[in-house]
Amino acid sequence: MQRRSMWVAVAVVAVLTLLLAQTWQVSTPEILGATGQPSPYAIATLEQVRINGMNQWLLIRGHDRRQPVLLWLHGGPGAAQMPIARHYNGALETDFVVVHWDQRGAGKSNPFRFDPTTMTFEQFLADARVVTRLLQQRFGQERLLLLGHSWGTQLGATLVHEHPEDYLGYVAVAQVVERGQSHKIAYDWLLEQIEAADDPRARERLADLGEPPFGDHAQYVAFAGLVDAFGGSMDVGFGALARTALLAREYSPLDYLRWIRGAQRGSGPMWKQPRYADFDARRDVSHLNVPAFFITGERDFNTPLALTRSFVESLAAPAGSRLLPIADAAHTPFLADPDRFHAVMADIKAVLAPEAAVPPHGLAAQLDRQVPRLMARNGVEGVALAVVKNGRIAFTRAYGSSGDLRPLERGSRFRAESISKIFTAWAVMELALRGELDLDAPLSRLLPDWQPGPTSFDIDGVTPRRLLNHTAGIVMNTAPDEVITLVREPGAGFAYSNAGYVLLERLVEAVSGRDFAEHLQARILAPLGLDASTFHMNAEIAEALVTGHDRDGRPLPAVTDAPRGPAGLTTTITDLARFMVANLTADPGTELLDQEQLASMWTPSTPTGGWPWRMLADHYGYGYAIERLPNGAIAVGHGGEGSGGINWLQMIPATGDGLVILTNSKRGSPLIAEIAGLWTASRGLPDTKIDQTTSRP
């Protein structure tokens, strides 16, 4: 019966194609407000985007674009949701910005010359990563809510498992756990149903197929048809879905043919691919670090409830997981009872996002418009930035190229350059907080191996405190094998010194008894959750670094021998955003620095002097440059400049605001200044010195 309905639908589509192909205009209806006028915050758009070398389609709809973005990963592969989404689940658009993506080989993304050999697990993951980044940038939301259905749960669970930083939560509808066991449960259930119905024809068909596993895809398709015929799979027949799809304005007649061809192809091209065929959620997704919700129809024997329940019970989910069975539903509860499904999703939203997301018409949208223009004007190849608001990450962004034709991503690894000094200062202050280091003790006693050579200056005046605030009188730079000398009287005033932070690096090693990079990893970076940051350097890390560029725009080789204490951190924009939050929300009593300790680091201890410091900060504290703003508040942070990039990090503790900008170009200073100006203006903050200068940080 199902097959007959399908061919009727195919015939209808073919006729319509001949009649309407020349005149059909695809679109998605506008969303109107209560007055019947277009809502100022609504979005309703149908877009073709380039994803990993292929044109693919997104349907984006929501009554308020400030709401959380819900990315829906459809099943199949090939079972696109786009032409039926508004009819069955349009109510979701009141709570979310709903994004339906026709994946490669499905619906509008299934051209007639499509190559099905490109349907691999790895390719779908790569495509989904691009879609995620596009939506993050488009809506200014650091994290999306990810929903996967059936095949989409294999893809979705893997994405959330590997990239939890990108997702607010995970909603699995009909979670795939393990194919072989699912088929065995369905087979046993089907035997019972056939015997209860006393259906000799079905009994014969099942006997011809044999018991699972099904090595041939056509075998599985026939088996799935039997499961569906006895009510264990689709809640709405294909004929009804086809009739609904025919009325969708988002699809042309040719699109309907593509939709049917994709659905018929299904998982055939992937059936024997190891990562698809051997997927076992219990092994491959043993833990999830975001809240997870598993919606399953109680009558589902395509992805059986019993197997989903056992998976959820075994799942390590520190952020929480819930199993949400839906009575009187099978494999598609969002079709079986759309109102109930909407209510469940509204409850999930109330848990995950009680407040609306950052409005994309604010600073995020302004930066999306302005930064590419500023990059082109200044000849800057790549920019990554993060904005913190009220002590929380508002959004992160990445624009341009990381070099060698690689697109810049939020996970791209940069040299932090002199921003590293803040982390070195944290390590020193944390040792002092633990009572392992006296900040005012002579360095000559704490680090006997340091000998500055003959000098008329007071060597005992060199202390950790003076090294932290650049008043120890140490030479600016020195080669690794050269003696670090005194060039002025300790305590006489500010004289910026990279070599002084090399001495702090050696001091940390002497006091802790272990390698500097290992100590920073164990005592600072790991406790803060900065998993992509390190002071280690090896060939793999060097290869992953973004390519720097000189003032003429020429690419430069990666720097692998920079001194670690003053400039050795490699990191990502996401990790630096998290670090700003740690600065602005530090809790007293933690094993790391509390707010009192941080305040002492932010206390102006010496006026700056000399170029460029007099243009960029008024004072220096312990690892932080400090500026007194016109309203009396302070801004704290640090710049960083290396052979191939310029960076800037600044925070205003009184308001919980923060901005960090990383570039891979020596021409980045004017761009940094303009971005900083946009940031302060959007937040109603006083202008900072960096807003008003194009000098290097």
Characterization of the model:
Helices cover 39% and strands 16% of the residues. It is α+β, with helices and mostly antiparallel strands and 697 residues long. The strands form four sheets. A nine-stranded antiparallel beta sheet has the order 11-10-9-21-20-19-18-17-16, sandwiched between helices. Strands 1-2-4-3-5-6-7-8 form an eight-stranded mixed beta sheet, sandwiched between helices. A two-stranded antiparallel ribbon has the order 12-15.
How are the secondary structure elements laid out?
Layout: H1 2-20, E1 43-51, E2 54-62, E3 69-73, H2 82-89, E4 97-102, H3 121-139, E5 144-149, H4 151-162, E6 167-173, H5 179-197, H6 200-209, H7 217-229, H8 238-246, H9 253-265, H10 274-277, H11 281-284, E7 292-297, H12 305-314, E8 321-326, H13 333-336, H14 338-352, H15 363-378, E9 382-389, E10 392-403, E11 406-407, E12 414-415, H16 420-433, H17 443-446, H18 464-468, H19 498-512, H20 516-525, H21 539-544, E13 548-549, E14 555-556, H22 564-567, E15 570-571, H23 573-584, H24 595-601, E16 606-607, H25 613-616, E17 619-620, E18 625-628, E19 634-641, E20 646-652, E21 657-663, H26 669-683
Parallel strand pairs: 3-4, 3-5, 5-6, 6-7, 7-8
Antiparallel strand pairs: 1-2, 2-4, 9-10, 9-21, 10-11, 12-15, 13-14, 16-17, 17-18, 18-19, 19-20, 20-21
Helix pairs in contact: 1-8, 1-9, 15-26, 16-19, 16-20
